[in-house]
Amino acid sequence: MTKRYRGKLETMIEDLDLPNPVIRSYYRDGSIKQYVRDHLGLRTEATSNNVRDFGVPKAIDALPQLREAMAAVTDRYQSIQQDILETFVDRGQLRQLAEPTRLPNGKRIPGLKLDHPRQLALMHALVRFAHIAGADTFTTRDLHPTTAAALDSTPETYRLASLRYDLAKLRAKGLVAKVPHSRRYRLRPQGYTICVVFLKLFERVYAPLTAGLLRPIAADVRLAEEKRHRLDRLYHQIVTDLDALLKAVGLKTAA
């Protein structure tokens, strides 16, 4: 654009007394608008009162050229929105899992922690294939020896009452359900997913990265890149990408 530009150049949100507002962006004698149709589909429509703004002659035989030009406008508009609309946004779910749960009777149940050893050991026991093969239900006594082993402990040291206390935390968050009229429990599908996520985050991401950052192996510096284990290369790439992410969001690492 130059100082000879004429026409509108603005974006506005219009409330037209419809179920959803309309976003409209103007350029010269044309515009592009977005709105939700039938509560399901997001429609993006480009319009123009002067096709010469797109470098297209005003003629019927130029219709295919005009269609391509306006389709390119729509693609660019959506591409820019994709760049500025982050999909990885904290919506509070992780925080809610960490917060205590207040039961209807007033009892307070502690929340879940990403690095709690007893909780992670219980999650290890819950995601074992043995429970799926056994009708996908279990008792606390079924879990007890496996959880103690994952905790590198013994059933005598990690008592059954402690396991029931830890299991109550997952049950309060809706990850584990009690089978009616029995002493058996069932791990819900969402509970299985959350358990796997917690275990993977701690054992495959947080713990290895923390060890590599706080106490790296000195000999790795002298090791050729192609001789490093594939996982080591990926962990190193995460560190590099984290540095790039900090710079992209405007944060600087300490010297």
If you had to describe this structure to a student in words, what would you say it looks like?
By secondary structure, the chain is α+β, with helices and mostly antiparallel strands. It is 44% helix and 16% strand. It has eight helices and eight strands. The strands form three sheets. The chain has a four-stranded antiparallel sheet, with helices on one face. It has a two-stranded antiparallel ribbon with strand order 5-6. Strands 7-8 form a two-stranded antiparallel sheet. The model has no long low-confidence stretch (mean pLDDT 84).
Major sheet: order of its strands?
1-2-3-4
Shape: elongated
Largest sheet: 4 strands, antiparallel
Catalogue the unreliable spans.
Answer: none
Compact description:
By secondary structure, this protein is of the alpha+beta class. The chain contains eight helices and eight strands; from the N terminus they run ββββααββααααββαα.
Describe the secondary structure blueprint for this structure.
Blueprint: E1 8-14, E2 22-28, E3 30-37, E4 41-48, H1 63-84, H2 93-98, E5 101-102, E6 108-109, H3 117-126, H4 129-133, H5 140-150, H6 160-172, E7 176-178, E8 185-187, H7 189-214, H8 230-248
Antiparallel strand pairs: 1-2, 2-3, 3-4, 5-6, 7-8
Helix pairs in contact: 3-5, 3-7, 5-6
